[in-house]
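If you are new to this repository, start here. Below is one unmodified record pulled from the training split, so you can see the exact layout before writing a loader.
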Amino acid sequence: MGRFQWLEAVLPLGIIAGMLCIAGNVQYTIHKAAHGRPKHIGNDMWDVAMERRDKKIVDEKLSPASS
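And here is the target side for that same chain:
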């Protein structure tokens, strides 16, 4: 009888894990539907500013020089 006591914990742990997975997938789906692309993990305002700066620099280098 005591050998299978751990099985009592499996169902609640499975429910918790399932709910965490569902919550994460719902957030992913809503963000992707709203913005058209997956969320970049760990992207803050600094990263966004640096991406804009880098894109501007690359575009300036690739555009023909107007002299």
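Two things worth knowing about this chain: The chain has a mean pLDDT of 89. The chain is about 70% helix and 0% strand.
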